[in-house]
Amino acid sequence: MPEINCNRIGIVAVNHTGYVEAMLRCIEDGNIAVPLRSDNDHDRISAASVTKIITPTFDGDWMTRKFTPQEIDAVALISFTSGTEGNPKGVILTHKNLTEVVTRLNSVMRLDNSIREYIGVPVYHSFGFGRCRAVAKVGGQFFIPSNGFNPSEIGTMLRNGGINSISAVPSLWRLLLVNKDLIGSYGKRVRWIEIGSQYMSRQEKEELRNLFPEARIVQHYGLTEASRTTLLEIHQAEGDALESVGQALGSVNIKLTEAGRISIRGEHVAQAYLIDGKEVNLQDEEGWFLTNDLGSLENGYLYYKGRADDVINCGGIKVYPETLETKVYASIGYSNGIAICRKTDPMRGDGFLVAVTSEVQIDKQQLRTLVLQAIQDMGVNAGNAITIIDVDSLPKTATGKIQRKQLAEWYMREFPQEDRQIDSLDEPASDNSPIQAIFCRTLKVNQIQIEDTFISLGGDSLSYVQISMELERYLGYLPKKWEQVPLNDLGKLAPQKRISTIIEMNTLLRALAISGVVVNQSGLLFIEGGALLLLLIAGLNFSRFQGCSLIKGQLHSIAPLLRHILIPYLTLAIAYQAFKQNFDPLVLLLLGNFQLPEIQTSNSIFFVWFIANLCQTIILFSLPFTVPNIRSFAGTSPWKFGLIYLVIGVVTHLLGPYIWDTSYLYDQVPHMLFWLFTLGWCIHFAKSKVEKVITTLIVIIITSAFIGFDVLRSWWVLIGAILLIWLPYVSIPSIIKSPIQMISAASYYIYLTVLIFVHLATRVAGIRYPFVTAVIVLLGGVLTWGAVQSLPQFLQKLKQFQIQI
After folding, report:
1. pTM of the full structure
2. For 325-365, how does the pLDDT look when each residue is reduced to its tens digit (9 = 90+)?
3. Which of 222, 300, 527, 642 shows a CA-CA span of 20 to 30 A to 541?
């Protein structure tokens, strides 16, 4: 790397025009500029072999200066960066590096010599000094505020016509957005804006665009090593592109590693680091610079996901602290004073440590609720993984970036007892209330907060009925929408004894449908069709517990549901096939419903078609949610979206036989039954009276067309769907509620084991009474379910017993 001149001049970094003049003159003279923290910054002076030190003198707030960058490979600047973890290293930048950045930036922003910019970031940082060079290249003027970024000062200067351009990082823009009244209609006077390299949400960018409607607004992503790598023209971007940090332009190239880390190549990328006085190449053989930043690429746009070493992995779901902080700031009306980082969580791997300074005046309980809402929006239900602490100040780098690792390490030192490893299956704390104990025992957690809810603790449709039963047993009744009620409020409810009680129609119908399957298989009565109602109810519960997450693009939300379905299914299938020494890969690969029914029955001990079809349908139903436009429409009107899905299901049912006649499989395949699962979605999201009437008419028309009213199967679907639409709750005698709830909760295990217990009752025990067989099947399924639920506690007690021995 050639040098025009061996003079390396140290320039003491101060935020005023004197520093900018000293830097530009040094570069113009062919010397190498080395910003210093002070005139006795021995580490940097020694590392960069500085031969001369300049302490700039203040020369006013405004600066007008022409600067012509050079396109040569000689070193122009050695800029030391502490990074986010405080390890200083020099970044060696050439004249060509600096020139490429300004040329590309000015081309996009279309600067001219009329620009009068308020530079709201320190000019001794890469972003601020880049703004000075960009403005100076076109012969414009820039203002460096003596006391730092000040929204009031900006408002005054706009009213006076003093500025027409502003540059600042997202945290400062948030401060300005909170104080929009200081700008008012004078925002129209701004012609240019550049936003620094931090995450900023689409909503914030849209607010900024509305506040400054005439401005060319550009956001960049970059580092000192590769300044302005991507550029986003916010003034003309639309939709999801506003969530991104822009595109690579000119000579710039970006790519992602398998781990999602961003790699950069281009003429703007520095050639080497200066570490301990030695040059270390930062590019690989192909010229790529591998950053420690995470991102994703969609249609050429880069979406910044945060630092790789800052990611919070909570229960397998990755959360980016900067994104989470932005959501919280938007809720509380502050722009500073909070930092979120990971902490050890024995149940989920990582939890959320929220550090709050005194400048944020908000009730801790309210803050916890807002953080919980934010992480739920990001696909995490983990209210008891949030810890809020007060701190005097937040550890930051010289550029204002939060040092999350340092904050997390400090927390572990100061509060070591908070992160002790404990078994998630330990007995709940003895001071828990009866209702808290129910939640702990059923959801297998041992740390809960009084503001937690069933949903925030990760509840799903399979544990919903079980907790409903226990709540009912304790309270004597079931509070409506209890799954949304904080534990603190549930704990205040007084137990009551009632002769009659309320039960969800969903729960009652699931119990009746699975009982219909049992009665049919035991030979007691021929009432075929219960499985179809179960499939419709599955669609309704899927929309209830996973629908909102899918609309937000969180496809991982279906993983726990599939695990709960597949683990017992595969356990039974593998055990049976091993016993018979007759392995059927189609059954194990969830393709058994594409076999002839007689082969399914001979190769298995349960109804393969239903489980395989259910899993296939869940996956097919979820895949379109990977498309942002589909998610956006679904979020606007879930019910109308469901109608479109229903139309697709109707079309595949009608046209499917012309392409592939699956009547020999009894049409127990996804494209023939997709309409039934989707109907459950429409029923759940039909909220208004008009929507319910239309959904009812659709149920009647489709059921009569596809099944016909002359068979019992249609009445299961027809009556069940109408009851779910119009009668979500029903009153029944209290004495029969627990058995109904138990059968409903155990419905999946009853379905899995129905053929096993029919065989045991009729073939092994020789029972010839269908009623007795039906009772045995129901009891057997319920007991199997109960044993599976109790297995973790049993294993834990066994483990403790062995330890004692």
Report:
1. 0.50
2. 888 887 887 778 899 998 877 556 678 899 999 888 888 87
3. 527
Residue 17 has pLDDT above 60, yes or no: yes
Answer yes or no: is pLDDT of 455 > 80.
Answer: no
Q: Which of 62, 78, 57 is nearest to 7 (CA)?
A: 78
Is 2's pLDDT higher than 70? no
Measured distance CA(231)–CA(194) in Å, rounded: 10
Judge whether residue 244 has pLDDT over 60. Answer: yes
Q: What are the tens digits of pLDDT across the range 587-599?
A: 889 888 888 766 6
| β-bridge partners, 340 | 354
Residue with the larger pLDDT of the pair 469 and 510: 510
3-class secondary structure, 156: helix
DSSP for 341-408 reads: EEEEETTTEEEEEEEE-TT----HHHHHHHHHHHHHHTT---GGGEEEEE-SS--B-TTS-B-HHHHH
**278 vs 46, 80, 272, 281, 433, CA distance in Å?**
11, 13, 10, 10, 63
pLDDT score of 127: 93
pLDDT of 83 higher than 50: no
Confidence check: pLDDT of 738 > 70: yes
For residue 489, give every residue at least 6 positions away whose Cβ sits within 8 Å of its Cβ, in sequence order, or none: none
Question: What percent of the chain is modeled with pLDDT above 70?
Answer: 89
Dihedral sign, CA of 390, 152, 194, 217? positive
E strand segments, 584-641: none
Cβ burial, residue 185 (10 Å; 0-12/13-18/19+): exposed
- Fold entry, domain 312-419: GMP Synthetase; Chain A, domain 3 (3.30.300)
Amino acid of residue 58: F
Distance CA 12, CA 323 (A): 35
Question: How many other CB atoms are found less than 10 A from the CB of residue 787?
Answer: 11
**Spans of all domains in the chain:** 8-307, 312-419, 434-497, 506-744
- CATH fold match for the domains 312-419 and 434-497: no
Of 735, 729, 644, the C-alpha closest to 685 is 644
CA atoms of 682 and 539, how far apart (whole Å): 9
CATH topology of domain 434-497: 1.10.1200
- CATH assignment of 8-307, given 3.30.1490.110, 3.40.50.10490, 3.40.50.12780, 3.20.20.370? 3.40.50.12780
Mean pLDDT score, 601-625: 85
In angstroms, rounded to a whole number, what is the distance separating the alpha carbons of residues 772 and 778?
Answer: 10
d(CA 408, CA 341): 7
> In which element (H, E) is residue 753 found?
helix 747-759
The percentage of residues in the chain with a pLDDT greater than 90, rounded to a whole number, is 48
- CB-based contact 535:593 (threshold 8 Å): no
pLDDT tens string 633-643: 888 889 999 99
- Token readout for 523 is 């030979």
For residue 759, the SS3 value is: helix
- Give buried/exposed letters for 261-292 (b at 16+ CB in 10 A, else e): bbbbbbbbbbbbbbeeeeeeebbeeeebbebe
597, 622 Cβ separation under 8 angstroms: no
- Name the helix (H) or strand (E) containing 79: strand 75-81
The pLDDT of residue 421: 35
Secondary element (H or E) of residue 548: helix 547-551
For residue 38, the Cα-to-chain-centroid distance in whole angstroms is 43
CA distances from 565 to 64, 128, 646, 753 (A): 69, 55, 24, 14
